[in-house]
Amino acid sequence: MRVMLQILTLMVVGLTTVSARKTKCVCPGPYHPMTLFDFSDFCIKGTVKVKKQVWVEDAPHGKDPENKRHDNKYSVYVKKVLKGPCEKKSTMQIYSKGCTSYCGMNLKVGQTYLLCGTMIGNEYWINKCGFNKKWTKVTPHQHNAIKYRYRQQSGCMEKCQMNPKKPKHCYFNYATCQRKYYGYKYHKGIGYECDWYISKGGGFKKCCDGKDPYYTKG
């Protein structure tokens, strides 16, 4: 998993270096939310308390507010630890590139976010290519998946396509089981296949637990 995380990081760096000339962030993927969660070294629910600009050493114009060559340093109060060596009710420092061309994130002070990222040395880093969003945008299905399913099934690599044309494709509505409809459960086997369970009145929990009487493979 560490090797795959390093590959993903290198892909982001390579693509953003090229895309900087076009002022556009280009992420590898798209990846399944569970894969992004699995790639991450840490994942928290946190509120931004302070935002500072940290200029990089090779910034061409020094500490100029208009200079795009800086990093953003956020002081984030940890409300909930979802993954990693973070402490609840503590304040941690999280970094992101200051330029959107390098997939930097512009977090707002006072806002609460779902923040997942990587550790570089002793520093915590996030970017637009990771599993990051305002907490108000996290759906109940995603919250349930993060809290229960993703951690339990860590290591299953999702190869399913995003935004499928047919509902029986592997990815469907935030990758969680939908009550009285189709849903999936990861199968830790050869190829890490995505198994589809058809719920016939068993509901959300029954679907997630894989207790439906039959399934079809996506």
* CATH architecture assignment name of the largest domain: Beta Barrel
Order of helices and strands: HHEEEEEEHEEHE
Main sheet makeup: 5 strands, mixed, barrel
Query: What's the total helix number?
Result: 4
Task: Tell me the Rg in angstroms.
Answer: 19 Å
Share of helix, binned: 10-25%
Average pLDDT taken over every residue: 68
Question: Strand fraction band?
Answer: 25-35%
Contiguous uncertain segments of 5+ residues: 1-7, 13-21, 155-200, 210-218
The top level CATH class name of the largest domain:
Mainly Beta
Kindly describe this structure:
The protein is an alpha+beta fold and 218 residues long. It has two domains: 2-137, Beta Barrel (OB fold (Dihydrolipoamide Acetyltransferase, E2P)); 140-217, no CATH class. The protein has four helices and nine strands, in the order ααββββββαββαβ. Strands 1-2-3-5-4 form a five-stranded mixed beta barrel. A three-stranded antiparallel β-sheet has the order 7-8-9, with no helix packed on it. Strand 4 and strand 5 form a beta hairpin. The chain is globular, with a radius of gyration of 19 Å.
Question: Can you summarize this structure?
Answer:
With 218 residues, the protein is of the alpha+beta class.
Labels describing this entry:
OB fold (Dihydrolipoamide Acetyltransferase, E2P), alpha+beta, 218 residues, five-stranded mixed beta barrel, disordered C terminus, disordered N terminus, 4 helices, 2 domains, 9 strands, three-stranded antiparallel sheet
What is the element layout, followed by pairings?
Elements: H1 2-19, H2 33-39, E1 42-55, E2 70-83, E3 91-97, E4 112-120, E5 123-125, E6 133-134, H3 140-152, E7 182-186, E8 194-198, H4 203-208, E9 215-217
Disulfide bonds: 25-103, 27-129
Main location: secreted
GO molecular function: metal ion binding; metalloendopeptidase inhibitor activity; protease binding
